[in-house]
Amino acid sequence: MNWGLNRGSGRGAALRLALAGASLLALASAGRAMAADAPISTVAAAQAAAPSATVVLADNTTTAPATSAAATQDNPYAKLGTNPLMRLWNYEVLELGKSSAPVDPTAPPAPPSVRDGFTPPPMTTSPMPFTDWPYGGTTTLGDNHTASVDSPLMVALANTSLGKAMQSAGIQAYGWVDYGGNISTSTKKYGNAPAGYDINPNNVQLDQAVIYIERTPDTVQKDHIDWGFRVSAIYGENYRYTTAYGVASYQLLKHNSFLGYDFPMVYGEVYIPQVMQGLNIRVGRYVSIPDIEAQLAPNNYMYSHSISYTFDNFTNEGILGTLAVTKQFFLQAGVSIGTEAAAWHDRSFLKNLFPNNAQDLAALNNYLASQNLAPVNNANPLYPNAKYLKDPGATPSLALCARYQSKSGHDDLNLCADSINSGQWGYNNLQWYGFTYYHVFDKHFHVAMEVYNEHQSGVPDANNPEVNFIYQNGGTPFSPQRMPFNAPGLAFCKNHDDLRCQADSQGALAYWNYSPDALNNISLRTEYYDDKVGQRTGVPAVYYDVALGWQH
After folding, report:
1. Which of 31, 146, 273, 539 fits a disulfide with 170 by CB distance 3.0 to 4.6 angstroms?
2. pLDDT tens-digit profile of 41-75?
3. Which domain holds residue 147?
4. CB neighbours of residue 506 within 10 Å
């Protein structure tokens, strides 16, 4: 049974109750957590940050706020104070239990939040974790203003020289702290696996402490090229799922540290409105596309995660373009270095600790004889050379997606192929083919669905004694001598005589969401996950997951 209190997105306290997995307490103080979330108008955000200051509008004109005594008396922002800590506290109190940010009565009319002809955001936050249907890899096209995150931290800093400089540059900082825990029938360490995130049974943990520093491009305007960036850092148990091999991965792969740090998003982007209906180009490390769920706490329907998401792609390093061909039809295309892979591992080699030589062949045949098995003529048919690639999955990989959203926003379909290359067994070299689909039944009820197949080719067979001996003696890039902890799994191939086989997994997931009002949402998660040869979860099995959650 899961339950949690999540303070996030500058929208008041969110109580999340999930009757599956295990989460106990989540506390977050954050701005809008992902680029896919709904924009707030530039003027409103600026006034929230510094109601006594002149506001720079999107067209670079300025306006001064009203200063009448009545307006000041009714203006909640005028009562925040001047001390940054007091301003932070007072603003949090203003937002507590509210479905949106407080209104500044002195602010001039806000500019349009959505470009003409683009679909208005179909959801509201709260109670939903996003306003636009997530498609990832870009700042949302057609409905994002620069510095539009409702950030209590920026409100606190508004009267300082740092806050004013950041506001002038359109840069914001925000974040959250998320704690969790679980009650479980398991008593072994990591005994909740393959359930993700809450892997340690009967435990309270720091899930994630996160900070973002970012500037987002204005995608509502269409008269000038704009730019943005994000630098993020995470610390907590959840780093175990975002870690990319070669990026501070020693914590997870060498020491198996329960808590650790990572930088899941470090990128820059350029928005060019003159190309068709708008083109955004992102370069760096970014969250994999498309996905319903997200690594970052405020961006999920529930505190717990599906199995499909736990064993999915997480991040890529590369370049990704998102093009609005029309105002309802988008294309995405990009090249990355693979999934959870580092660019500097491309074509990087390690010494083979068990190559095909006479000494190793004798050792292997002695072992096979002890198992009453026939001798072989090749010590290492998996990796016979003196060297092997450090990570065969660190290789140029393609991504291609198509998105259609109806004019009403009641239907949204994303078809994607992500991180496509030769598919050889790598650290997390998943070849992802699938789709997400969102449908609104009425103002209270909607569904979010995801179906995918992911696979790797040439995965060594854990059922084969020859393969196991080679693996245990350093004959693969992910043998214990190279990666003592959390190495990619082997496959339990159906034919035990096979040295390798293809590892497929199939996921089908749906979140059924009912929101009776602006402060509450009830989510039912239904899931089917088939790990055909056990490469993802460690056991060839079909998993069924049902979870019930309440967000308030």
Report:
1. 146
2. 333 343 344 443 433 333 334 444 444 555 556 78
3. 2-348+391-461+499-551
4. 17
